[in-house]
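Practice problem: predict the structure.
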Amino acid sequence: MQHGVYVTRAVPGLGRPETRGLIQRAVRTALRCEGVDKPCEVSVTLTDDAGIHAINLQQRQVDSPTDVLSFPIGEMDYDTGRLFLGDMVLSLPRAAAQGEAFGGGYAHEVQYLTVHSVLHLLGYDHLDEGAEKARMREREKAVMKELGYDF
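Answer:
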């Protein structure tokens, strides 16, 4: 099943040449692993820390940058038959820094943050330290394993 994954850069030239492909593969793998059997669309905006900080403040009233934001929509486009899952915003400089700090590297961190965001778009949450967070972490690990990472 072909899912639409639309990646735009809020800052021209941001990221690396392989970034779009990493994100598209992670989105499609997460949807397949989650058993999504409808064609879906996901919009991904790549930005820097200043850009994600502004969005975090405007949309969530949180006055700090973060690595990824997810905005679930879940609306059907009756013209195309696709389900628009929502939007994600990813700070590429933060992903690169975290990839280095955590030891997984750029590709791992970009794909992990993408998988994390897709799970949010599908309704997973981790606000508490209980069962929902554990369930989300378990699904992240399963998808990352499918992508070829031991996590």
